[in-house]
């Protein structure tokens, strides 16, 4: 029997996109999974939408929580699952149908691999495809990960390795995935599936837009800590350059 997979969607006021994210998980060719939708205190129709799916499919569970922020929500959600493999889909993105099958096949076959990630496509707010993601075109290396987060989406993680590094550190709110991947890269092998199996939506209300400066500062902290763990802090320090750029955007 295939190893069970836990897929997590944390959601905060994403009623416009949530159904597409959930549908993409339920359409996976690898069927042996649980889907935990963790609502982080939404005030729109997100809970109602998620509840309707939980009523229709026994693999879907909904947890309604108070608003804690992305890092704490994701950590709590993972703690509430049981699968041997862990995957995350952002509530405004979606998966290709074979994403779980292709990534889980690597973890099934190679026990030394603890993290698998895929290429991804970028789309705009309306879902129009704009091309392949820049980050996944950067060759993976443990060292390059210190300056380029190429392990962006989609990731499937072996739970035993996730537990080994201590899981999500909620201190790194909004870059908790980058900090986690830095720590995972230090204890396990990482494998890239060179096919775009994730669709990332770039829109004005995404975390990347809303908290760009905060993400840069927290990434600086995560890299600094990684240098300490790797015994490299006596040779290197992190140089962060924040460059201002202005553009005009049509009013909605």
Keywords:
globular; alpha/beta; single chain; 8 helices; 252 residues
Question: What can you see in these coordinates?
Answer:
There is one protein chain. α6 (176-185) packs parallel to α8 (212-229). The chain is globular. The protein has 8 helices and 9 strands. It has helices at 18-26, 46-56, 70-79, 99-109, 159-164, 176-185, 207-210, 212-229; strands spanning 5-11, 33-40, 60-65, 85-88, 94-95, 113-123, 129-132, 155-158, 189-201.
Question: SSE layout and pairings?
Answer:
Layout: E1 5-11, H1 18-26, E2 33-40, H2 46-56, E3 60-65, H3 70-79, E4 85-88, E5 94-95, H4 99-109, E6 113-123, E7 129-132, E8 155-158, H5 159-164, H6 176-185, E9 189-201, H7 207-210, H8 212-229
Parallel strand pairs: 1-2, 1-4, 2-3, 6-9
Antiparallel strand pairs: 4-8, 5-9, 6-7, 6-8
Helix pairs in contact: 6-8
Assign an overall shape: globular
Query: Residue ranges: pLDDT <50 for 5 or more in a row?
Result: none
Distance between the termini: 50 Å
The fraction of residues assigned to DSSP E strands is 15-25%
Number of strands: 9
The helix count comes to 8
Q: Please write the string of helix (H) and strand (E) elements.
A: EHEHEHEEHEEEHHEHH
Q: Mean pLDDT, rounded to whole units?
A: 91
> Biggest sheet, open or closed, and with what strands and sense?
9 strands, mixed
């Amino acid at each position: 029997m295939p190893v069970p997979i836990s897929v997590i969607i944390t959601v905060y006021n994403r009623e416009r996109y949530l159904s597409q994210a959930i549908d993409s998980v339920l359409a996976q060719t690898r069927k042996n999974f649980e889907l935990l939708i963790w609502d982080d205190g939404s005030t729109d129709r997100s809970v109602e939408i998620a509840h309707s799916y939980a009523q229709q499919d026994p693999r879907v569970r909904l947890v309604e929580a108070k608003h804690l922020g992305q890092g704490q929500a994701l950590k709590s959600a993972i703690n509430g699952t049981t699968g041997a493999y862990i995957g995350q889909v952002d509530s405004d993105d979606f998966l290709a149908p074979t994403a779980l099958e292709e990534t889980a096949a690597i973890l099934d076959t190679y026990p030394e691999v603890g993290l698998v990630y895929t290429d991804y496509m970028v789309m705009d707010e309306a879902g129009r495809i704009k091309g392949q993601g820049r980050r996944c075109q950067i060759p993976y290396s443990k060292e390059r990960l210190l300056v380029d987060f190429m392990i962006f989406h989609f990731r499937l993680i072996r739970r035993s390795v996730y537990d080994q590094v201590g899981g999500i550190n909620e201190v790194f709110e909004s870059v908790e995935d980058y900090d986690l991947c830095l720590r995972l890269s230090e204890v396990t092998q990482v494998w890239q599936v060179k096919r775009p199996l994730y669709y990332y939506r770039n829109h004005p209300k995404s975390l990347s837009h809303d908290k760009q400066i905060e993400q840069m500062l927290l990434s600086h902290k995560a890299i600094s800590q990684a240098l300490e763990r790797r015994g490299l802090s006596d040779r290197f320090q992190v140089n962060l350059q924040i460059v201002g750029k202005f553009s005009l955007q049509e009013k909605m």
